[in-house]
Amino acid sequence: MGTLRWCGILAVLLMLAGRTAPLHAAAPAESTWIATWTASPQERWDGEFALPTHLPFQFRDQTVRQVARISIGGQRVRVRLSNEYGNRPLRIGAARIALAGKDGAIIAGSDRELRFGGKGDITIPPGAPMLSDPVGLDVPALSRIAISLYLPEPTPPATFHWDARQTAHVGQGNQASAMKLETDTTLTTRVFLDSILVEADPGTRAVVAFGDSITDGNMATVDVDSRWPDVLAERLAGRNVAVLNAGISGARVLRDRMGANALARFERDVLARTGVTSVIVLMGINDIAWHGTPLAPDEDATGAEALIAGYRQLIARAHARGIRILGATLTPFEGALIDTPMNGYHDADKERVRQQVNAWIRDGGEFDAVIDFDAITRDPAHPARLLPAYDSGDHLHPGDAWYRAMAEAIDLDALFDDD
Fold it and tell me: Which pLDDT belongs to residue 213?
């Protein structure tokens, strides 16, 4: 009997015995790169705008060490830098990544060089991002990562994130690999740092918190990661879900100023992110309230219809990409900033618009799900204002306790369409 015939009979016998393997084993599922932390880039403003940038005019022969607490972990990481708003090339003389210690220090043994296309000294063209090569570094979920950038040439910080809620350390010379940065000054902003990515297991997904200062964490305690997306990340870390904070303090749905309007940045901050399956939208209070204040003295008032039209565009674009989109109601703000130069932020007409918008978010049926942050945070005895226990003191932004309450009120199952 021929050899081929014997092989065929043997294969049949093994199959009948239940001991054979398929002729072509399925290829193992591939891992993918997913952002575990982000900070939405903003264009530096100058001139007569009411708020300062908190930026130096330029960096020169200095190292900037920035810390970020990630959401999900991994054993290989990448970093994305951004020169999105620069009008000249951005030179990075050296870049390093490490596990963060305290007060500008890093943890021994964790320091790694970041290279970009094999190079450590790079130039990023105007308007461009640059993604680092993969680096082997075990970063646990919810760990703090230090990114150190050496800027050898005069470097204006044209691309930044205004409200970091995290201290960055700046020191003279190339200290990118220093265990402890010799700090000359500190910053409360982020510069050139767009995102941190990890090599994630198959099935890993991401939720984006897309909002304004209440998502960005204004008035949260600095350096303790107490913003509501931070707390949500803690709740989801065990589910292999990244939480990306795409909040920008001062952000608006329909107009620019402290960052691009929501319709303009939705592609960059949400739709273009790998693995995003859900987005939470909490934005609109600045569209309503800036009119008639030093922030926007010459702008017309924004009505509910215009805001709702903006939300509908976000919903349509999310659904076109198969992304679930949740609407969060706008929180109370009576008395907001009343003892500041921004007096006039709230009035009866603006409150009427907020109520109209919230009624549509709750009852319009166009978002995939609703998170009623208004109901969670309002004073039952005076629904137009914040519950005093949650008020940071400016009658607009939460304190740490309110941020935690917001995150803990989110139904985690509502974030996903797993039916």
Answer: 97
Q: Is the dihedral of CA 333, 334, 335, 340 positive or negative?
A: positive
Q: How far apart are the C-alpha atoms of 36 and 39, rounded to whole Å? A: 11
Residue 21 has pLDDT above 50, yes or no: no
Quick one: 174 and 263 in the same domain?
no
State the pLDDT at residue 419. 64
Asked whether the beta carbons of 371 and 410 are under 8 A apart, the reply is yes
Q: Does residue 221 contact residue 14 with C-beta atoms inside 8 Å?
A: no
160 inside domain: yes
Q: Which amino acid is at 176?
A: A
Q: CB burial class (10 A; 0-12, 13-18, 19+) of residue 221? A: middle
Characterize the bridge pairing of strands 276-282 and 74-82.
unpaired
Dihedral sign of CA atoms 236, 237, 239, 243 in order: positive
Q: Quick check: is 297 in a domain?
A: yes
* C-alpha to C-alpha distance for 5 and 7, rounded to whole angstroms: 5
> What burial class does residue 357 get, using C-beta atoms within 10 Å of its C-beta: 0-12 exposed, 13-18 middle, 19+ buried?
buried
Residue for token digits 């193992």?
28
> Per the domain annotation, does 11 fall within a domain?
no
Q: How far is CA 235 from CA 205, 229, 243, 353, 417, in A?
A: 14, 10, 10, 33, 18
What is the sign, positive or negative, of the torsion defined by CA atoms of 255, 256, 258, 259? positive
At which of 199, 230, 261 does a domain end?
199
22 within some domain: no
* 84 and 48 housed in the same domain: yes
Q: Say what the pTM is.
A: 0.92
- Phi, psi of 33, deg, nearest 5: -90, 125
60-107: per-residue pLDDT in tens? Answer: 999 999 999 999 999 999 999 999 999 999 999 999 999 999 999 999
Residue 372: enclosing H or E segment and its boundaries? none
Other Cβ atoms less than 10 A from the Cβ of 305: the count is: 12
